Amino acid sequence: MSDKSIHITDAVKRAVEDHALRERPAECCGLLSGANGVITDLHPLRNEAERPETRYFASPADLFSAMRIIRDAGKRLLGIYHSHPRSSAFPSSSDVDMAFYPEAVYFIISLEPAVEMRAFRIEGAGIEEVTVSVVDG
Ligand SMILES: [Zn+2]
Q1: pLDDT digit string (tens) for 46-85?
Q2: What is d(CA 66, CA 69) in angstroms, rounded to the nearest whole number?
Q3: Ligand 1 center from residue 75 Cα (angstroms)
Q4: What domains can be seen in the chain, in order of their start residue?
């Protein structure tokens, strides 16, 4: 499981960026699902962190229902996304501490100075960037 690239449809990429812009100044978060390494769906989750401007904590109820929707659709959890409204698209130390799904790719959307999406695998304290390929769909 150390694939160096992941695919995402342009529609989902746009929807994730829209979610990030809509929640600003709070961080947004959500799940990304699909099959065969191609992300085809997003599942926005409520951020219930006490200080959502600098942290994210996905609503457990939202997480549970999104996981069920993914499973019922016969898809797989491929990614987890959140935004950095005011910092760069690189995992923070708390992001590393809270990375509980080593099989997922962590997407971070920075909003300043410009909208930028990057993706990483986080295992233990290790951070490895993953190339994001945007495909039609
Ligand atoms: Zn973060």
Answers
A1: 999 999 999 999 999 999 999 999 999 999 999 999 999 9
A2: 5
A3: 25
A4: 5-135 (3.40.140.10)
